[in-house]
Every structure is written in structure tokens, then in C-alpha cells.
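User: Predict the full complex structure for these chains.
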Amino acid sequence: MLIAPIDRSLTNHCLTLLLLLVAAWIALGLIGLLRPHSVRFVAHVVFPLGSITCLAFGALAALFLVSGHLAEVMTLPLGLPNLPFHIRLDPLSGFFLLLLGLVAAGISTFAAGYFRSGQGTAPGLLCLQYHVFLASMALVVLADDAYFFMVAWETMALSSYFLVTAQHRIPEIRRAGFLYLLMAHMGALCILLSFGVLQGGRWQFTFDTMRGAPLSPFWASAAFLLALIGFGAKAGLVPLHVWLPEAHPAAPSPVSALMSGLMLKTAIYGILRVAFDLLHVRFWWWGVLTLGVGLFSSLFGAIFAAVQTDMKRLLAYSSIENIGIIFTGIGLAILFAACGLPLFAALALTAALVHSLNHSLFKSLLFLATGSVLHATNQRSLGKLGGLIRRMPWVATLALLGTLAIAGLPPLNGFVSEWLLLQSFLFTPQIPHPFLSMLIPLGAALVALTAALAAYVMVKFYGIIFLGQHREPSLVHAHDADWMERIGLAWLALGCVVIGVMPQFALRAAGTVTADLLGRTVNLTSPFWWIAPVTPKQASYSGLVFLAGIAGVLVLAFGMVRILAHGRIRRTAPWDCGYPWQTSRMQDTAEGFGQPVRHMFGTFFRMQRELPTPTDAEPHYRVQVEDRLWRTLYLPIARGVQRLADWIGLLQGGRLAVYLLYSFLTLIALLVFVL
Amino acid sequence: MKTLTFVRQFGEVLLAIAIAPLFAGWIAQCRAWLQNRSAPPLVQPYRMLRKLFQKDVALAADASRLFRATPYVLFGTMVLAAAIIPSIATDLPFAQAADAIALIGLFATARVFLSLAAMDIGTAFGSMGARRDMMIGFLAEPALLMVLFNAFLFSGSTALPGVVEASATHGSFIDPSLIFAAIAFLMVLLAENARIPIDNPATHLELTMIHEAMVLEYSARHLALVEWSSDLKLLNYACIGFALFLPWGIATHGADGTAALALAAVALLAKLVVAGGIFALIESLSAKLRIFRAPEYLATAFLLAVLGLLVHLLLGA
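Assistant: Here is the predicted structure of the two-chain assembly.
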């Protein structure tokens, strides 16, 4: 309690200090423009300063959550006349700011080592876009009126668009960027409409008036659905996910990490803000809808991730899966809250929040690791990697932690949130609705299937990149990541371990949010090394005991074997089954490893295969797996838009006389209307 | 009192480590009898372990540290699981570290480590085994979770001591929904432990192997630890089954004096003897399924568990 007095003076000014740090980011971005072509200046001066700012940012947000303050508000004299920017810091925004600060610190440190001179955007400009992107994400979370929210939201979309298209000379990247921008604007439009409904006829767009706006069930549902579509498009919910597997691989790795780890979370923040804060009613079917979309997205993402052959696309699909899991938690929370079971709603919401934090950590870690691999090998295709654990031990070790965490394995962090989600599913039979109480428990089976599929995907990801033999001879020259990159990766890996081993901290942070939104928290009374969300009798979990137990037995067994037996080792060639011409081509390829999933979930894919016949002189195998939705949903819409545009194009004959006729007819029509 | 519970915990773990190979040996013996072969002696698995510990490790030239650490990690996870599962008494200091769902996670950790180790050398069989084993994993987990859901509906707890104590206070525990769940659990147990009908522990026909393909590169003390871990895994699964469905004899909290503990140990041995016989019978009566029939098999297990759930919700609640 020594820090209490300092605390007090700091916590009263949390919001001011946070805004100063946001301003510092923008300033850093502008400093980068001073010497836009100097990689050394940007990488060794600006980015490290940025990452210190991120750390301070995260620390301040944590301090705010600890302080127990409910909300701090502020009005900035910026923006349009009579429309000042309203800012508010409450536990929900505090939680997401904490996530932003913690994870961005790691990414910025990594980026300091990552960006090198090459084609595409100049480093200084990239630095500006990067820091504006960070600042806009922070402001999205801090905004307290719809106008400022949309300004920040669009800034976020635009700055990330420029970051995605950093290598804008490559046509595929330009195309991916365009798709991203299109989906982002479609989503933004829905969010704007949702705010339009939420203001409830008062034509005041501060969130404070929206909280008090009386909405009929119809309009409340309309607002919720629009928000779900709008934020779902940003988060990558199926069927609005198509931009994600295109944009993430196109972007440079630190940007992919920012987008997947942090930007998707702003969408989670948005839906939570609308569903639990701005709307004063909740209906059970909103929860069922969100839950259903979440479950479907998670299964869809996991299945598609299993058949990818590009490592960044694989991670992008895995993001869809994780976002699905988070939405499953949110759906459950809405459902429980609507059914008058606030404690279980708090449990499900805690699961969703902790999973958001976890996903930010391990997904950023893995995206950054792919960046290191990309730099070391110039390969993104899984089929051309392999055996990198021997060339890049640092990246391989840290990526292993991320892999185990994202696969949902104890004692790392991914398991904690999935466990909490399954725990909240256990209470679904108590929902006072005869069919739901029987149907929803089956959702738990889907979550288990998804989690196990995620483990499958991650074994594929790690096994094919880092284990086995080099699939290409050039991989012998792969080099490990440099120091800044290692520190960035290690910071994120540390986060995965700490939250896994001592989940109580994350639970407390999420607890302040659930207390604010739902008035309840999960049981937080147990000591820091174990958690028992409802009661210890019902279920408990201790990551620390897991880690200590496994490590203890491991050391003991190792010692016993050395003492009682011996430690002799003979290095030999691997067992060749009597066939001495083994090559690295005989290992499973990425396609091969995904084959069982392709076989079992064939209905999800649109598959094109060319199989060799036994008589082929040059056997050739090719398989292409596509998303069915692309052809059944998006291309028809695109064609429809095209046709509509063609019809409207008929008006444009290019003859001046016809245009004058249009003006004349319009004038006549208006006159008739007025008279 | 506190030290006593730790002594009990320690004793339980040691017992599990000690009898795990014996249990595997017992199943092998029953199977040999049923198949009209002369049976190997019961202590054969111990002899194997001793032989393996004495040999020199023949390690593939490119094996990484992950490959060498995995046998110890596997052993660590399985011993930890044995410490958590209440096989003799429920009042265990470690039992609070995990409920049954976290135990599934622990087994998944072991599975992922073994799969990664199998891919480390970069031979065709290793990655094939890893792929198949992970596939069995994602098929089995939903069924297993539904089984635990059943247990939770009965006892209001997913912590195994809670389940055992609930059934001790409620008296008899025979219920149609639990019978469905028990059959589902048995099916999952066979699949997860690489036994017939999903995998054949005795096979060395490469194309059908799952578990054996993954451990093909292991030798000597590494192999010994891997084998010992898989024996422990089978024992752990059996003990989870006992705790969920046949909790009779397990010394509950407050009623765990020396006599009760001795009785519990005898009950455990008796249950293992019977369970071993049943496993051997199943393995003798059924044939190994093709790998792509595995989804059907595990889907059946899943449906049985869901059926149990519905029976409980429709009739029981």
C-alpha cells in the first residue's frame, strides 16, 4: 500500500495522461517523417520510443482498472463547431486499452527490428501510418460520442489500409487492400446506421443520450443487428470474413499482428459497448443469434485453417476461429443476461474478455514469428519450409509457446479462456426455456471440437515450419531473428505464460468490466495461483500447479534416469524401414497434413483436384481449396452491383443535349412537386 | 492432518506409477488367454522397461531438443494427471488443480507434444502418425466433453472429487443416462489410448499404425518413458471412468482412515482386474477399423453421450 498516495494522484488524471500518450504516438509518427528514408533512424529511435509509450499506456490502463474508479469523462474542444469530441474512460474501455498497450509494446519492439528498406512505402511514412493506426485504435475505445467514434473508426480503417498496401507494387496486395477497404466501409455504414437508430429520435449523438434513449423492442433489435453486422464485418465473422484471409497475408508481419491482435478487438469492444452499455434491453434471441454465428465462425475458421498452405493465411483463418470463440462467449453472456442469470452472464463475458486478451497475445506472437521466418527464408508457403528449429532456435522456442497457447493447452493462457467458456456452457441447462436448455449444451461440444481442431492446425503450423527436414536446400542459410525481434517475441510469449499460470490477474481485470456492465463478477476470492469461477467445489483450475507439477516430475524423472540408468546417446541416421533413399520430400506436406480435414469436412469446400494416374510419365498433383461462400454469396452480389451500375450507366450517353434534357425534366418535376 | 493428506497423495501417485505397467501386462495376458495363446508373464512390461533403460539411446542425427524433452514431458503430464484423479481417496491436495475438463486439456498437451516430437525427425511415418493421432483427438474431444456434461448434471460439479462425493451421498448411481454416458466413455477411452478398434497396440504394419508410427524414432530410455506414459494414460483413463461411473470404494472426505484406504486400494485393484478383462474381451471380439471409419465410431460415442444428456434433461430433471 506504499504506492497508494502516488496512485491517487495518478489515477485521477488517468484519462489526461492516456490522451497525452496518444498524442505522443502521433508526434512520434510525425517525427518519423523528418527522415523518411532512414531505416536506422525510424527503426532504432522512433519505434523503440513508441514501444515505451505503449508500455506506459498499458500500465496506466492497468492502474485505472486497479483503482476502482468507475468512469472519467472529458470533452475535447476539437472537431466540428458545436460537435466537440466526448471522451470517456470506464472499465470496459480500460480493459481494451490495457490489451492495446501490452500487446502493442511487443509488436513495436519487434517492428523496430523488422522494417528494412526495400520496395514499397518509405520507412518514415510507414512509421506515421503505424502510429496513427495505434492512436486511432486507442481513440475508438475512448470515444464517447458516435461522431468521434466514427472519425476514429475511419481513421483506423484508412491507416490500416495504407499499412496493408505497403507493398503496393504487387497487384495481389492492391486487390487485397481494396477488398479490405470495401468490407471496412460496408461495416462502418452499418455501425453508423446502428448509431442512428440508437439515438432514439433525440438527434444527439453522445453515448450518454443513447444510454437513456427509450427504444421499442423492434428498434432495439434493429440497432443490435446493425451493430452485429457492422462490428462483425470488422471482426471477421462468417460470412463477412472474406477480407481477412486476403488482407492479413498481404500486410507486413507487424501490421498483420496489429490487425489480427488488436484491430479485431476494437470490433469486440464495439459490440460489447452496444450490447451491454448503450442498449438497455437484451432479448434472448440476440444471444442465440450471436452464439450461433460465433460457433459457426469458429468451426469454419478452424476447418479452413487446417487446409491452408500459406502460413499467414493459416493464421488469418485461425483468427476467424478465435473471433468465433469470443463471439460465442458474448452470445452466451447476452443469453444469460436476458434470461436473468447475471452471474453466469458474468462468467461467459469474462471468458470472452480473457480470450480477447489471450488471442491478442498469442496471435501477435505467431504473426511476428512468421515475419521472422519470412525474413530468414523469403518463403511464405508451408510446402517450402521445414526444419527451422535447428536454424532459428529463438524464434522456434518462442513460437512453440505461442503454438501451445493458441492450441488451448494448459498451462498456457489459451486454455484458461476456453476452460472458462466451457464452464459457462455447463450452466446452459438452467436457461428457463425448454428447447434452448437442451440445444445450447451441444454448443459446448462444438467448442470442444473447435479447440481440438485448433490443436490440429497448430501442430500442422509448427510441425511443418519448424520441425522435420528442410524442404528446400536454401533453408540451410536461414538465420535467427535479431535482438529487437527476439525481445518483442519474448514479451508476448511471457504474457502467454503469465496469464496461463496466474489467470487470477486477467480475471480481476475482466471482473471490473463485468461488475460495471452486469453488476456481478465471477468468484475472485481464491489466491492468485488458482481460479474457481463459481465455487471451488464446482470446478477449479490452477495453471501454476500444472506447470510446477509437470516441470517437477520432468526434472525428477530426468534425474532418476541419469542416476539409476545412464545418459548414453548414439547419433545415427533415422530409421528408414529398409528403404535407404529417404528424402525431405517424403515428409507430410501442408496439403497432406490437412487431408483428413479436407476429407471429413468436404462439404465446406469447393475443391478442384488434379490427380496423377499410375501411367503418367510426369506425375502431377494439384489441389485447390476455395471458400464456397465466395461463389455463392459474394460473386453474385458483385455481379448484381455491376449490372445495376450498367443500368445507371445508360443514363450517361455522353451527349450534352441529353444531359440538358435531364436538367429540364428534373426542373419540371420539381415545379410540379412544389405547385 | 495436512502432512497426512500429502502422504496419501504421494502414495497414490507412486501406486499409479507402479501398477500402470502391470495393468497393461494384465490386459495382454487376458488377451492371450482369450486368443488361445500362451500368455506372457504379468511382469513382462517391467522387464521391457528395465531392458530399455539399460540400452543406449540411438538418436536420429537431426533430432532437436523438443524430441529429447518430449518423453519427460509426457511422463510429467501423466504423473500429474494421476495425482489429480481420485483413484483411492478424494481428499487430495492436487485434486483442486484441475477439474475433469482441465484433465482433458492435460491429456491434449501430452498428445500435442508427442505429435510434434513425431514430426521432428521428418520421416514419412512420424508425420503420418501425428496427423492421424491429432485427428482422433479432435473427434474424441466433443464426445468426452458431453460425457462430462452428463456427470455435471448429476453431481453439480466437474471436479472429480465432487462427482465421487456426490454419488457417495446420493447412494446408488445407476441411471439410464449414465449408462449411455458410460458406453460413450468406454468408446472414447479405447480410441484415445490407441487400442482396437481405432489402433492396434501390437501392430507393426506401418500403414495402419497411429501410436506406433509416432514413437518409431524413439529408443531405449526415451521409449521406456513413452511406453510407461501410455500405460499411465490408460490407467488414468480407467480411473476417470471409475470416478465417474463406478465410484464405490473410493475413500471420501472425512471417511478416509487407514482401513478405508486399504479397502479403497483393494476395490481399485478389483475394478482394474475386471476392466482389464473387459478391454481384452473387446479387443479380441472386434477388428480394427479403417482409419476413415474412425469418425463414424467416435460420432457414435458422441451421439450416445448426447442421448444420455437428453434422457437426463427430459426424464430426470
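Chain B touches chain A through 81 residues (CB under 8 Å).
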